[in-house]
Design goal:
- The complex is a heterodimer of chains A (230) and B (114).
- By secondary structure, chain A is α/β, with parallel strands linked by helices.
- Chain A contains eight helices and seven strands; from the N terminus they run βαβαβαβαβαβααβα.
- In chain A, helix 3 crosses helix 6 and helix 5 runs parallel beside helix 7.
- The mean pLDDT of chain A is 90.
- With 114 residues, chain B is mainly α.
- Chain B is 82% helix and 0% strand.
- Chain B is elongated and about 80 Å long.
- The N and C termini of chain B lie far apart (78 Å).
- The mean pLDDT of chain B is 92.
- Classes of the chains: A alpha/beta (230), B mainly alpha (114).
- The interface between A and B is medium-sized, with 27 and 16 residues.
């Protein structure tokens, strides 16, 4: 199976090197792609020090969803059978990649859940409740039990990639709405335990005041997704 | 409507029309939008010289004052116009996103493992 590890990155000069070192030592034969989302720091310079790593530079800041979709298009066009996506900030333990790859051979989307494993990851109560609420919404709409709907640590099969490269892929915070989209297209979505760590030096996408915009946007996105013909 | 009001309002509408045509001539405004704004100017002129039409519409919608009618339709026009621009912007954003993707993919640097 031809697998690509895709890492969207923006302003991660302090973390990306460590992440690439870990991946290199664990999976020396697996191709890695970094999508540099118009970083304003030395992220690109750090990545260039790894000649085995492929890199795409986006011409302007496209956001997490835009960077991810770029990686999907790259993987799809270059004939990859699956993509493992992970964060560049060191939150996702590369040792869990093996389990994601193993499971994507029999499923279309493998979501790595920090809640199914023992982790040092601690979420604020507010965010945990939000995750649970999204989980419930996902379950009531699709019957899928996803404990970690905001996890960006996932593996996608080629079939899932063929959907993810289309224009209806949500650019803004692609989370539960993407899983629902995949489910509506009758793709097999499974969840496995993975190890995650707290992000060391910045606020995440789902922190602070952004969480309100995220919540509103997610509910609206799911609503629109359900209105569309599958 | 007093004559000086008619002259003022119709002059404004005609000046607006001329300005729109000039923008279209200088390719600052797409022709499809110049049609919309020309039509708007025409509606203003019609209302100025056929004031009774405004009174008819006012009565039809159950309003009391013609100014209510003007404000209501003016606001609705702006609302739909903004919605139309949102749709156009969404289209353009999608096109720009896809163009950016194509450009980025064309200039991708492949690592030694690929």
């Amino acid at each position: 199976m031809k697998v690509l590890i895709a890492i969207p990155a923006r302003n991660e000069e302090l973390n990306i090197g460590r992440v690439l070192d870990q991946i290199d030592s664990l999976y020396p034969a697996v191709p890695v792609l970094v999508v540099n989302d118009a970083s304003q720091d030395s992220t690109a310079c750090v990545v260039e020090q790894y000649p085995q790593v492929s890199m795409i530079r986006l011409p302007f800041w496209m956001g997490y969803g835009g960077a991810l979709q770029t990686a999907y298009k790259y993987a799809y066009r270059n004939g990859y059978d699956a993509v493992v996506q992970m964060d560049a900030d060191g939150q996702h333990d590369p040792r869990s990649i093996a389990a994601l790859i193993e499971n994507v051979q029999s499923a279309d989307v493998v979501v790595g859940s920090r809640f199914l494993a023992k982790n040092d990851y601690h979420m604020t109560l507010f965010r945990r409740l939000g995750c649970r609420l999204l989980s419930r919404i996902g379950q009531s709409l699709t019957g899928m039990r996803i404990t970690d709907p905001t996890s960006g640590f996932q593996a996608l099969s080629r079939k899932a990639l063929s959907l993810a490269i289309e224009d209806y892929y949500p650019m803004d915070y692609p989370d539960l709405d993407v899983l629902i989209l995949m489910h509506r297209f009758r793709l097999k979505v499974v969840e496995i335990p993975v190890t995650m760590y707290p992000s060391a030096d910045k606020t995440g996408m789902h922190e602070g005041l952004q969480v309100w915009y995220y919540a509103f946007k997610m509910i609206l996105s799911i609503f629109v997704m359900m209105l569309r013909k599958s | 409507m007093p004559l000086n009001q008619k002259i003022f309002a119709s002059s404004l509408a005609i000046l607006f029309f001329v300005f729109v045509m000039d923008l279209a001539r200088r390719k600052k405004l797409r022709v499809e939008y110049s049609i919309l704004w020309s039509f708007t100017a025409a509606v203003i002129v019609v209302l100025v010289f056929w004031y009774d039409s405004l009174l008819l519409i006012t009565k039809a919608i159950g309003a009391v004052l013609p100014t209510t009618t003007l404000f209501l339709f003016g606001l609705m026009f702006l609302l739909f116009l903004n919605l139309h621009f949102s749709v156009k912007l969404s289209e353009l954003s999608e096109q720009v996103k896809n163009l950016a993707h194509e450009m980025a993919l064309l200039t991708a640097k492949k690592g030694t493992r690929e």
